[in-house]
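RESIDUES AND SHAPES:
===
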Amino acid sequence: MQNWLRKHPQVRTIRVAAADLNGQPRGKRIPSRFADRVFTDGTRFPFSALNLDIWGEDIDDSPLVLESGDRDGVLKPTERGFMPMPWLDAPTALLPIWMFHDDGRPFAGDPRHALRAVVERYKARGLNPVCAVELEFFLIDDSGRKLQVPPSPRSGKRRVAGEILSMRALDQFDNFFTDLYDACEEMDIPADTAISESGLGQFEINLMHCDDALRTADDAWLFKMLVKGLARKYGFAASFMAKPYEDYAGSGLHTHFSVLDEEGNNIFDNGGDEGTEVMRHAVAGCLKAMPGSGLIFAPHANSYDRLVPGNHAPTGISWAYENRTAAIRIPSGNHKARRIEHRVSGGDVNPYLMLAVVLGAAMNGIEDAQDPPTPITGNAYAADLPQIPTDWASAIDLFENDPEVARIFDAELIRNYVLTKRQELRDMAELSPQEQVEIYLESV
């Protein structure tokens, strides 16, 4: 990893950063000539720094702050290593890090360690999840009091309409997307297909499937950072917030996953369209954990504006074959790629916590050999189904007490996350909807 800097002498400073519970990068700027000590000694900041609210403030009643003396953890580089930060003007490198105790134990409140613990459950059974994510986001002109679509750099005009699969919409921002794909190549983020989506100035980019769930989450976290940073170089904002426009669909972060055995066989593939019994067990686990894990899929006040019937986001707890109104979809296509698509998450999620709860819930179902209900057909919004939590306070309570969630996350992380969300719930209630949008627009 250190050799990267020697090959890039133009890089004079580095950033070291870890994801907090909201997915916000927390870290430091370090002159590159002092970077070696990050590898030998790590870097240090308080455990509480990974448990801040969306404003970056301490959690008032967190035991990580005053009660413990606000003790430090040690942060060490992840296996990802250095990468460029193409959205900055000066040549700069980013080094992702994660947090440990001084005795080498992983800090249970670090969301990347939460995902690592779930992956270890798969490895203990000789299994490995293969994951891919689809990220939706908006390009937004936020220079005035009202959010609007940026004017096209080509025509200078604003297209005030949702343009599903519009080539014109993509072409209007071709220079931005060209630079974005070039930056993904530099950062080794596997960006694949881009499309125009149904919201105002909304787009989706798929990241290719990967047999390393930690890397999949890294890619999503880094991609969100890149898109937001690069958009500012073009004079507009990019936002992954769940619902910036009241009258248009919000942004999701859909996850596809399958599971390989030690021989590399897809254990969801039975040679046909229906998938294996193990796949159905995984579906059952995802459905059973869905009420309690709703807070991970919809972590912010604005998240619940997206979860409305008939607006391209699932609201009922159900599964189906080739049906995008269901929360869990089994896509059609080549049986060798038989997989589960989990469609609940908004674009505003922490990718590490989201993948941890999706894969962890699936493993709960596999371990218990649970059977799911009958798959639905037709319009899920019109069916009589148990519902995903539709308000923030209920989602917090369900997450705190759900036994399926307790099988996935360490009790310390559950406590920290609940304290964080209750503080945000309290403080967001004092703000107008416009003030809330200003908080969420680029932070999530």
Notes: The CA atoms of residues 284 and 372 lie 4 Å apart. Residues 2-107 form a domain with the Ubiquitin-like (UB roll) fold (CATH 3.10.20.70).
